[in-house]
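Entry under discussion copied across for reference:
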Amino acid sequence: MAVGALMLGIGLGGTASAAPPKPEVGCAYGHVCGWDAYGASFDFVRCDVENLRYMRGTGTLINNQWTGTESILWADSMGSVYAYSYAYDWRTLNWDNVAWITVC
């Protein structure tokens, strides 16, 4: 009986540890895009300051603007920089730390 339970536990452990494939995401040239852990996303193309307080958890940022174009991720109302992103840039980050983005 103990052997059967042990074998079952190994089988379940093997299937539980298999990671799902990474989703394919795209961001058009000239755009800055992001996705969070809960399905929220953005796709900005015009130069502006945008509120990102709705983005939560770990997610992805793609800066596909013109080469060398800078976007700034702000930790609060334009007082503290969380990160700079120069095109082309792809990164994983914690959106809980980002409140605003300056595009361009």
